[in-house]
Amino acid sequence: MNKLINDPADVVAEALLGIEAAHPDLRVDHQHKIVYRGDAPRRGKVGLISGGGSGHEPLHGGFVGPGMLDAACCGEVFTSPVPEQMLEATKAVDGGAGVLHIVKNYTGDVMNFEMAAELAAETGVEVLSVVTDDDVAVQDSTWTAGRRGVGATVLLEKIAGAAAEQERTLKEVADVAREVNANARSMGIALTSCTVPANGKPTFELGDSEMEVGVGIHGEPGRRRVPLAPAREIADLLLEPILADLPFSRGDRVITFVNGLGGTPLIELYLMYNEVAKILSAHGIETARSLVGPYITSLDMAGCSVTLLRASDELLQLWDAPVRTPALRWGI
Amino acid sequence: MNKLINDPADVVAEALLGIEAAHPDLRVDHQHKIVYRGDAPRRGKVGLISGGGSGHEPLHGGFVGPGMLDAACCGEVFTSPVPEQMLEATKAVDGGAGVLHIVKNYTGDVMNFEMAAELAAETGVEVLSVVTDDDVAVQDSTWTAGRRGVGATVLLEKIAGAAAEQERTLKEVADVAREVNANARSMGIALTSCTVPANGKPTFELGDSEMEVGVGIHGEPGRRRVPLAPAREIADLLLEPILADLPFSRGDRVITFVNGLGGTPLIELYLMYNEVAKILSAHGIETARSLVGPYITSLDMAGCSVTLLRASDELLQLWDAPVRTPALRWGI
Questions:
Q1: pLDDT at position A152
Q2: Are residues B69 and B87 both part of a single domain?
Q3: What is the ipTM of this complex?
Q4: What proportion of chain B, given as a percentage, has pLDDT over 90?
Q5: Which residues of chain A make contact with B270, given a CB cutoff of 8 A?
Q6: Per the domain annotation, does B322 fall within a domain?
Q7: Cα B313 to Cα B323: distance, rounded to the nearest angstrom
């Protein structure tokens, strides 16, 4: 197991110590494994929290800060946080304007966030939830009823975070978040498995010249396993179902997000971005903004995912708004 | 070979197409494989150019933009660019205040940048050069007389870029750059080899429970190959020679940079950062700023490097100055 770790049982706790040490403007509750914006709660601002299993870094802890999340609840690797964590975070970030839960569609996450929302309501905090389910690869999966939430979550956290910063109401911020999810579609491909530290061996076996098309961010199976193909064919395999699903149409403007799954270096992601851009251009779809890099990962998995978000002027303005987090930062 | 590529011969050219498509405020000369700041040359500002073999992304193309480089010359993977590229870039970014060449200490890079500087001087452009050689692992190596230039290059490009933005003179910018190199020390460790696309197989063999201590960013051998150790011991192995070399002393303030080599995910880099922070704290060394992530990589190599830069108030102010590049961005 080629990992920079100590005891596999301590990986999440020790990474949180590192996040705290590296980012003095964040605050970490180590007991509850929650990363907070240092100045939370902000009076009058809707609080935004997200969370999920660890192993997808920088999601979600790397997206905490002005213009994005107020808190991120960290589960163990690929394991949902528990309702107590979400409840604790919800109470802590409430500035009187309510709290939005941003939840990726995995059975455990959805159930635990729902329970936390009910408990928070009992303490008088108003909570709304938005669930991301942008992965077009499979309808149901190992850990999901319905589609999985993947890359759209990153774009949603940025855009909803900007809406909250403008002191919009809880309902307004939730509406913007749902608009992002409704207009985003994603699909991913794995060239290797990932290795969960506690297991010490790859989650699945994949030959040196094979790839898993439509893989999930925990190594869940996708649509099919096929021989490794050139990047231009991989881009086709990913974009065809994405474009057909919304569907995206000639003249649409999109945010184009080419994401690395953890073990794939940036030079390959830019090469993939070029293939994606050519296909979009051929379809008459205009990339208004782009994001290239490892933002929602699956430990050390080699591969990438592509997310397209059809974006109105308003969503683009919110995308452009200042943000200051460890992983996304501009304008501040 | 688990890579998102087409023909191995086209990797660099196609990645440059992706960089151009993703970043409309940059300009790419595909013939010469140069990434330019879109508004170069800037009249009255010293032009900053760097470059080297590809495979280290985001270095250098991802550091082009306001507050950092004016141009980056891209060689083929792990191969120096040729003097013609550097000459072309030098002439193109000269705004009348001269041009600084930022060169990592590898034999080919140094020779080719020297030749380009001589040719540029003949055309009337004033050029100064600064060579980084911050790697404490080995004195000479496969491709180097003297020490290798590694992580300090990232910090130097940011800090010298800020000095140039203030319209300091060429000599002043070069002096700041040399101050950074003189006060920075680095060392790296590999948990896997990397695979050069044109070769199709790992550059060296490393067992699943081995690591190469003091590895170079092209897979050059380091100090020794030893059994894989826990992260806390790896941090000791890296920091002991770094701290002893400058030497760093109790009370020093540093920029602490934990860098990923390409195949190692962020969760492990934060865990390593925690180990590094504990050692620095025990030595009474204060981290004034930090940087955690893959910024100078070696294709898909798993592993990390640590760079410490002893930083004066002035260097910290220059570090904090606004920057807007694909890979480092804040304040703009």
A1: 98
A2: yes
A3: 0.98
A4: 95
A5: 15-16, 18-19, 22, 57
A6: no
A7: 18
